[in-house]
Design goal:
Radius of gyration: 19 Å
Number of domains: 2
Number of helices: 0
CATH class of the largest domain: Mainly Beta
CATH topology of the largest domain: Jelly Rolls
Number of strands: 15
Strand order of the largest sheet: 7-9-14-11-12
Largest sheet: 5 strands, mixed
Strand content: over 45%
CATH architecture of the largest domain: Sandwich
Order of helices and strands: EEEEEEEEEEEEEEE
Distance between the termini: 30 Å
Shape: elongated
Oligomer: single chain
Length: about 190
């Protein structure tokens, strides 16, 4: 899930600290301080129940904050299959795509058609959730991420737009025609 901070108005000036609490009142995540719209990534929710969002303006300030909670968008990619498009108009909404891969296969994630105005972080995750490869996209298009799975199984790709950015991006996983050196993780 993602929490979008769609608007921030503070009087007098200052910042707003936003946190998410679990149903038992303990901290799930500290989203940080906001003076302008942005986003907060939430980890997988560990228990069922009612979660709480706390909004704390600095000092004696008062604040009005717009919040938008969204589930991740996504789908299932097939290696050497068709591209899928992540498209969001909701601040704070992320993408989560899965694909099956075999250990030692040389793969490339092709990222095209990027319309996000600011940086977007794309990660390739192993079946255990640890990071295999990462790439930060600027506002242009035409990026690739080369990687070699270290385990066989269901891998994931996360798309995390920065701040209050919305837009779209297509993703395709394809087999490399020739092996590459492990140090070639990156793009064009």
């Amino acid at each position: 899930m993602g929490l979008g901070v769609t608007s921030v108005a503070i009087s007098p000036s200052g910042n707003v600290a936003i946190s998410i609490l679990k149903p038992d009142g303990t901290s799930l995540v500290n989203c940080g301080n906001f003076t302008a719209p942005g986003e907060c990534d939430l980890p997988a929710l560990p228990v069922t129940g009612t979660y709480f969002v706390t909004v704390n303006p600095s000092g004696l300030a008062t604040a009005e904050v717009g919040l938008l909670l969204s589930t991740s968008l996504g789908g299932v990619l097939t290696v050497d299959g068709s591209a899928l498009t992540f498209s969001t108009t909701r601040v704070g909404q992320d993408g989560f795509y899965t694909f099956d891969a075999s250990v030692g296969s040389n793969l490339t994630l092709v990222l095209a058609g990027n319309t996000f105005a600011s940086n977007t972080l794309v990660r390739v995750l192993r079946p255990d959730g640890t990071q295999l490869a990462t790439r930060t996209l600027g506002s242009s298009s035409g990026y690739t991420v080369d990687f070699t799975p270290t385990t066989t199984g269901l891998h994931a790709i996360t798309v995390d737009p920065y701040l209050a950015s919305t837009g779209q991006l297509s993703l395709r996983v394809q087999t490399q025609s020739a092996p590459f050196a492990p140090s070639q993780v990156g793009g064009q």
